[in-house]
């Protein structure tokens, strides 16, 4: 028996990790050629305190196959097994795993469940396999296996503002001044899963949208401007480039064949409701591959933004910068 096998058999074999969703301020839309789920553009995001995911991974020698239960129901296990296989390879772990997960975020609805889901899964499997503290900066192997699950997920490993670099596909934190207090107010504008998953939508845009090359070539300037705005604590500059990035991404989506239109009447109602506050520069909006509106404001304005959205939204959530993926059980390491 090799040393790695001895370690895996004697390790705790179980870990629970919680992770918040993250919302991109400068968006990722498109993959680099190849099979490793590397992005074609970088991104800048904000990890939130909630909603998110809590996941437990338990390696068990008695299991004939991996199992995955999401919100109390059996769910497709193949994407989970891919992440577990990566971890098993690194740790010399041979056991199958029982994975249970709870999303406080709606699943596959354009609210980034894949980001909190794969960040929580990857880090829980990492700890359950006895791979230890992933360190600061994060162990590159953890970032890569989480990214293979979902391109936006590495950002949920980190607290607050995070940036993915297009050249390295690595993720790093972007420090903001301590007084830079922002909130993201999320207006849920429809129910149910989105019609086209991000992965399929990205492939279709790259293949058919005449705006895709312009999206890719104009992206680095937005990322640089967004990062500079975070570092300077410049709310107006961050909001302006955030809106530019989201509208360019949706233009690229709309020009895809067949078109990707993720907005609903509820999306426009939310944008219109925020018109007066927007004109004053007190709120800026972003939308992902789904109908929901995420409104960036200063902490002091979160209540008025939420009140403004409530009459036109199905539900309104107030989120603040969060901690990133963290070990819940066992308590010792990160
Ligand atoms: P979203 O907008 O919610 O990110 P996606 O279609 O991009 O939607 O991703 C949804 C996919 O993410 C699900 O089909 C599932 O594979 C994965 N996912 C969601 N929640 C979890 C979870 N808690 N654990 C593992 N994978 C998850
Ligand atoms: C519009 O990370 O969900 O939310 O890598 O295929 O899993 P996969 O895609 P995913 O796409 C996120 C797209 C986005 C923008 C963003 O979060 O940057």
Walk me through the structure.
The chain is α+β, with helices and mostly antiparallel strands. The chain folds into 2 domains: 3-176, Ribosomal Protein S5, domain 2; 182-319, Alpha-Beta Plaits (2-Layer Sandwich). It is 37% helix and 23% strand. The chain is built from 10 helices and 12 strands. The protein has helices at residues 3-10, 78-91, 113-128, 140-149, 198-208, 212-232, 235-254, 265-273, 275-279, 302-309, and strands at residues 14-26, 43-60, 67-70, 73-74, 96-103, 161-164, 171-173, 182-188, 283-286, 293-298, 315-319, 326-329. The strands form 2 sheets. Strands 1, 2, 3, 4, 5, 6, 7 and 12 form an 8-stranded mixed sheet that branches. The protein has a 4-stranded antiparallel sheet with strand order 9-10-8-11. Helix 3 (113-128) packs across helix 4. The longest helix has 21 residues, at 212-232. The protein starts with a helix and ends in a 5-residue tail after the last strand. The structure holds adenosine-5'-diphosphate and ligand DP6. Adenosine-5'-diphosphate is lined by residues 53, 55, 70, 79-80, 101, 103, 107-114, 117-118, 121, 197-198, 290.
Strand coverage percent: 15-25%
Q: How many domain modules?
A: 2
Helix amount: 25-40%
CATH architecture of the largest domain: 2-Layer Sandwich
What hetero molecules are bound to the protein chains? adenosine-5'-diphosphate, ligand DP6
* Radius of gyration computed on alpha carbons: 20 Å
First and last CA, distance: 29 Å
Mean pLDDT: 94
Give the CA-based shape: globular
Q: Quaternary state, please?
A: single chain
* Helix-strand string: HEEEEHEHHEEEHHHHHEEHEE
- The secondary-structure class comes to alpha+beta
Write the CATH fold name of the largest domain.
Ribosomal Protein S5, domain 2
The number of E-state strands comes to 12
Reading off the top of the CATH hierarchy, the class of the largest domain is best stated as Alpha Beta
Count of individual helical segments: 10
Major β-sheet profile: 8 strands, mixed
Unreliable spans? 1-10
